[in-house]
Amino acid sequence: MAYPADYRYTKEHEWIKVDGNIGTIGITDYAQNSLGDIVFVELPKVGDSVEATKSFGSVESVKAVSDLFAPVSGKVTAINEELKDAPEKINADANTTWLLKVELVDAKQVDGLLTAADYEKFTSEETGH
Questions:
Q1: Could you list the residue range(s) of the whole structural domain that residue 59 is in?
Q2: Cα–Cα distance measured from residue 21 to residue 125, given in angstroms and rounded to the nearest whole number
Q3: CATH number for the domain that contains residue 51
Q4: Residues contacting 129, CB < 8 A, separation 6+
Q5: N6-lipoyllysine modification sites (predicted)?
Q6: Position 129 in a domain
Q7: Strand, helix or coil for residue 117
Q8: Would you say residue 125 lies in a domain?
Q9: How confident is the model at residue 2 (pLDDT cuts 50, 70, 90)?
Q10: What is the pLDDT of residues 53-108, one digit of tens each?
């Protein structure tokens, strides 16, 4: 699975796409594949703050519950309401199914995240492929 080059990635398997001062956050295809069938997503509320590297919610699959970690700090401006009733959309297309949007506190935080090539290298080292 190719990872979009215009996204940045975390070692916890979240992605962020930045447009101006808004960051759209999701989980990677690698993460959804590792989790299996996703049955529930817990997200913060609009107006909440998230802090870089800290947990902001969780995703539950038939296998496990995994924490979600913010790639950047910011204020939540939107959550993907569709995931309340259809969390499996993440399994269908993790690269385009977003979880939340945040107004960035510090855009420079994005520079510290992995590029698509770095992330691909990281996941291949993690799996040994």
A1: 8-119
A2: 32
A3: 2.40.50.100
A4: none
A5: 63
A6: no
A7: helix
A8: no
A9: confident
A10: 999 999 999 999 999 999 999 999 999 999 999 999 999 999 999 999 999 999 99
Q: How far apart are CA 48 and CA 1, in angstroms?
A: 32
- Name, in order, each residue with C-beta under 8 angstroms of 122's C-beta and a sequence gap of 6 or more: 9, 11, 114
Tracing tokens 């993690």 back to the chain, one arrives at 126
Is residue 126 a part of any domain in this protein?
A: no
Pair of tokens at residue 115: 């590029």
Nearest by Cα to 40 from 17, 66, 19, 78: 66
Domain count, the chain: 1
DSSP letters for 42-100:
E---TT-EE-TTSEEEEEEESS-EEEEE-SS-EEEEEE-THHHH-TTHHHH-TTT---E
Inter-residue contact 30 to 13 (CB < 8 Å): yes
